[in-house]
Amino acid sequence: MTNLSEKPMKILITGGAGFIGSAVVRFIIKNSPHYVINIDKLTYAANLKGLESVSYSEKYIFEKVDICNRQQLEHVFKLYQPHAVIHLAAESHVDRSIANPFTFIENNIIGTFTLLEVTRNYLNYTSKQTKENFRFIHVSTDEVYGELKSKESSFNESSCYSPSSPYSASKASSDHLVSAWYRTYGIPTIITHSSNNYGPYQHQEKLIPATITNALENKPIQIYGNGLQIRDWIYVKDTARALYFILINGRIGETYNIGANNECTNISIVQNVCSILDKFKPIQKNGIKCYKELIKFVTDRPGHDYRYAIDTSKIRQLGWEPLESLDKGLKKTIRSYFLNIRIKG
């Protein structure tokens, strides 16, 4: 097998206009010799601002494609002859999955199935060299493992699946499809499970950008239940680095957890964001001294998992480490909101 990091490849990225997807596109274009074919159907969660820094690169191609549309996918594979796929396209917001689960079943399960089938057909007629070096990286979530109690050990790659929401159930289903297509058809797949991502260009429905947006607009900062739910947070650029690292160094048929060992309660994350905002832009509202006073606890959502935590020793032993601390990552994230048009500081 050739060294994948040296010879220029054409990497097909699904969902490359999304939050994590755009970070992966930026990282590969700026830090490798490889070309990127970004396919995205540009739903509400897409943010083309995250691609502005690379959109004019000769190594970047964009195609508006729905992964559920087999004809469109087959055209892209035939036209560009990719050497690898990083599959990020997915519906990912738990609240939306509770309100409208069908969209998650369609995009996360049927979409993944369609992509696997098009990939299988493509590998049947592509060159021997391309077939031997091909990689299909399926990007999933730590939520497929379900929840942990406060003192339980972190989930590892061998932990049983126990999804709680329509979102996590749809991702678990897509994981099983990827594993089956590897076992049955020999598609060279690798699965990743990432913890909660944060960083620039994230959609405002997520916790950290929602906190920043509402705070700067002097609106209530809503927190589910008592806010003591625990999540492991990772800066999105570290995830992008990890996915590229796995593409180059990962072993076919394996699963890798991606996290930064930053377990925090939701309330502590929100309070940290508020404290940083107090320094960036002190609140200007009569009778309120700091952003924390905007925090409002609301009724918890159905099936809300208490704690997520993953053991990342497997990828660390392979040679990857996260680089961004939570404090610096939050400051970079908040700073980006003042530098972008979406929120004027």
How would you describe what is shown here?
- With 345 residues, this protein is of the alpha/beta class.
- The protein has a domain at 10-202 and 234-261 and 309-323: Rossmann fold, CATH 3.40.50.720.
- Helices cover 41% and strands 17% of the residues.
- It has a 7-stranded parallel beta sheet, with helices on both faces. Strands 7-9-11 form a 3-stranded mixed beta sheet. It has a two-stranded parallel sheet with strand order 8-12.
- α1 (19-31) links the parallel β1 (10-14) and β2 (35-40).
- α2 runs parallel beside α4, α7 (207-216) packs parallel to α9 and α9 crosses α11 (326-339).
- The chain is globular and about 70 Å long.
- It starts with 9 loop residues before the first strand and ends in a 6-residue tail after the last helix.
Strand order of the largest sheet: 3-2-1-4-5-6-10
- Termini separation comes to 51 Å
Largest sheet: 7 strands, parallel
Count the E strands: 12
Could you state the CATH homologous superfamily of the domain at 10-202 and 234-261 and 309-323? NAD(P)-binding Rossmann-like Domain
The helix content, as a percent range, equals 40-55%
* CATH topological fold name of the domain at 10-202 and 234-261 and 309-323: Rossmann fold
Secondary-structure content class: alpha/beta
Counting H and I runs of at least 4 residues, what is the number of helices?
11
The value of Rg in angstroms is 20 Å
Helix/strand order:
EHEEHEHHHEHEEHEEHEEHEHH
Strand portion, in percent? 15-25%
The second-level CATH architecture of the domain at 10-202 and 234-261 and 309-323 is 3-Layer(aba) Sandwich
Mean pLDDT: 94
In CATH's first tier, which class of the domain at 10-202 and 234-261 and 309-323 applies?
Alpha Beta
Coarse morphology? globular
Which regions contain 5 or more consecutive residues with pLDDT less than 50?
341-345
